[in-house]
Amino acid sequence: MSSSWFCRLGRVGVLAGALVAGLCSTAVSQQVVGRPDETPQQRDARMKWWREARFGMFVHWGVYSVPGGIYNGKEIPGIGEWIMNRAKIPVVEYKAYAKQFNPVRYDPDAWVRLAKEAGMKYIVITSKHHDGFALFDSKVTDWDVVDATPYGKDLLKPLAEACAKHGLVLGFYYSQAQDWNHPGGAAAGGHWDKAQDGSMDDYIRNIAAPQVKEILSNYGKLGVLWWDTPVDMTRERADMLLPLLQLQPQIITNDRLGGGYGGDLGTPEQHIPATGTPGRDWETCMTMNDTWGFKSTDHKWKSTQTLIRNLCDIASKGGNYLLNVGPTPLGEIPEPSVERLKEVGKWMKINGDSIYATTASPFSRLPWGRCTKKLTNSGATLYLHVFDWPKDGKLVVPGLRNKVQSARLLATDKKLKAKSGDDGVTIDVPAEPLDPIATVIVLEVKGKLDIEKVLPGQAADGTVTLPADLADIHGQAQVETIDGQSSIGWWTNAGDFVSWSFKVSKPGRFDVMATAATPAPSSKFEIVVGDQKLAAEVASTGGYQTFKTVTLGTLDLKKGSTELSVKPVRDGWQAINLRSIVLTPVK
Ligand code: H79
């Protein structure tokens, strides 16, 4: 499976689905940034502000906020900004919603202050989404806020001014290949109305290209152009848009233009990859509930804890977090979003040093949380984000061999005692965390980072825990993290297997348990340790995200280094998501 935008996008909805795997095989695999004349040093300079920012606000706003998920009295399933497509609303009927788009409570200064209070450094707003409606005054169409709504004023101008005033960077999202209202723009993403007939090439030439020129010309200096989505974007079509970027030479673009252009950023959508991608910048974009565009019936808000831990998780992998709000047709950011952003902001005010301008964790995994780092002249500053506070007052940083210069709590500057030992560095911490969501400890270490990979071992009671993110993957399966929990997914190929190496100090007989999820009626595999093979099976858990822990049988473990593999059985394997294998001593 390639790592194109569509695969990563598709993972959310159809996790481990063969459908998406099929679509991916047609994706362009060879990608170029699209800036042949730029040196790596110039590129680093261009990316600097973005790499230091780490946290931004995504805004999805448009006419779709008027129906807000309801059409003809019925709730339309799925993301709100897709309502026109999902409900196959005729063009004329959809356009009528614009008459009710009158955002008299729009206060761009307040939006920018909120983003700033949350600790966000940039804002990316939908200048035009797939419904083709422009939030700006476009000269090439009447389907924009100035010509089609009672409000009648450009929405992007005052936002650009507010960003400049408060020192935030502004970026524009632009849907270049899906436009359900301009002829030829719905060639790719579905087509249900004669009014959509037309040539996609003409649409790109006469609507998309001139509009991109408008947004790159009329709103001052921009930080980001966020393309979405490259459906049916050939190299020829992309080449009608790419040269326009010269209007904003410093602008950063994502990997969704299409035509084989990878741009500056990877864009995992609605998920956090299991590991970062050294050498390739990336940004996870994510909703706070389950929709991008406002949907009146969506109350599935993520907790502040999830949002803060996601930010730590992403920073620890070297990425940025672009967190979405979906304002109402009156121009208000929904109150649950405001509350959460303010809470995230309180955490960032205290702990921002552990996020901004940091780089990825040097550890492959930490049992209690996450880590970010800054390299210094004498060594490194490690920021330890502790999610699970140690009950015994000792925080072990496994495998860290560097000499510790100092350890302190970031929030209070209180010094902590740290000692190097066989396991790594052990820090004496207070009995209670300062913040149960994530307490940050700052560790200053000397010299080049020296971290030994520590094999999992047995807990005091003899239990061995083998989590997804410590597995060695043999094949195409992939580890991914959802809500801070990692699992091995995309395991559609029965030839793929996974294994773990670990140390056994107290040998004996062990119960083998798996925490797994699958919608299939059953999936068969075997657990292999040396010459022992345990036939195993999990029954449907109801879905790829519904995890259950099942006991599979028993195995004997000998003292010393051990390898355990999970291998699909060709006859009977169905894709599962595997979170962990746990071995507990038989009493
Ligand atoms: O702007 C947000 C989404 O509207 C947009 N990208 C983010 C940032 C996006 N465009 N395309 N996709 C996401 C792919 C999603 C396809 C789906 Fe569907 C839309 C899955 C469910 C609704 C189309 C309709 C495919 C299945 C049903």
Give the total of beta strands: 30
Name of the CATH superfamily of the largest domain: Glycosidases
Q: Helix count?
A: 12
Helix share, percent:
10-25%
Inertia-based shape: globular
- Would you tell me the overall average pLDDT? 93
- Biggest sheet statistics: 8 strands, parallel
In terms of structural class, how would the helical and strand content be classed? Answer: alpha+beta
For the terminal residues, how far apart are their CA atoms?
44 Å
If you had to describe this structure to a student in words, what would you say it looks like?
This protein is of the alpha+beta class and 587 residues long. The protein folds into three domains: 352 residues, Glycosidases (TIM Barrel); 78 residues, Immunoglobulin-like (Sandwich), CATH 2.60.40; 122 residues, Sandwich (Jelly Rolls), CATH 2.60.120. The protein is built from twelve helices and 30 strands. Helix 1 runs antiparallel to helix 2, helix 6 packs across helix 8 and helix 6 packs across helix 12. The protein is globular, with a radius of gyration of 25 Å. The site of ligand H79 has 13 residues, from helix 1.
Notable features of this structure?
disordered N terminus; 3 domains; alpha+beta; 29% strand; 8-stranded parallel beta sheet; 587 residues; Jelly Rolls; Immunoglobulin-like; 5-stranded antiparallel beta sheet; 20% helix; TIM Barrel; binds ligand H79; 12 helices; globular
Quick recap:
By secondary structure, the protein is α+β, with helices and mostly antiparallel strands. 20% of the residues lie in helices and 29% in strands. It has twelve helices and 30 strands.
